[in-house]
Amino acid sequence: MDLEARAAAHWALGDSRRLLVIDQLALSDRTVAELADTLGMAGNLLAHHLDLLEAAGLIERRISEGDHRRRYVSLRWDRLPTAPCVHLAPIKRVAFVCTHNSARSQFAAALWEQTTGLEAASAGSQPAIRVHPSAVRVAAEFGVDISSAQPAGYERIISKPDLIISVCDRAREAGVPAAHGQLHWSVPDPVRSGTLKSFRAAFAEITQRVEHLAEQTQQ
User: Fold this and answer.
1) What are the residue boundaries of the structural domains of the chain, listed by start?
2) Which class in CATH covers the domain with range 94-217?
3) Given this chain, do its domains 3-79 and 94-217 carry the same CATH topology?
4) What architecture does CATH give domain 3-79?
5) Per residue in 12-49, pLDDT tens?
6) Rounded to two decimals, what is the model's pTM?
7) 60 Cβ partners below 8 Å, 6+ apart?
8) pLDDT digits (tens, 9 = 90+) for 84-96
């Protein structure tokens, strides 16, 4: 970040209400309505603060790939000058879910295991026949082997995990299995475009999110 971008970021964070928004997004993406309810903030006031945070490059708003009436608000971790003040209790069992369990949730489970040394599960609401070949290729480029992974439905999540993370808007909006905790990461589906660039972008985003979640849960 150049000097002007850093100054803009610090200015945007100089309001306690905007800091609360950042803290709410530290672990999970939220819809605008969810943020308003959680923070008890009027919609027009929240929109004003979101506009300022977005102008400073600290958040982005994505139209849901499921219900297009929804927008999910996500942090741009690479632009934050300081880490949010939030943490979770230690996690032993985590599961990542998406629709087809052919790319994003496979990336996330493998990266969680590699980052933390803890076991992770992945599943899909409508599992594909196989893990997408481009997902296998891109993971291998970054030293992650998912060549033997197989998509599966929610029956794979036999025991109730400590945390379920949906990495797919459609899966989240269709309802995910019960867990002690639930988070959502609105990661664009790379299979839709099918390009290696989109798979690499999804892998990079999930890597960043897994690393930050691991930091927050293992403090």
Assistant:
1) 3-79, 94-217
2) alpha beta
3) no
4) Orthogonal Bundle (1.10)
5) 999 999 999 999 999 999 999 999 999 999 999 999 99
6) 0.91
7) 54, 73, 74, 76
8) 767 777 788 899 9
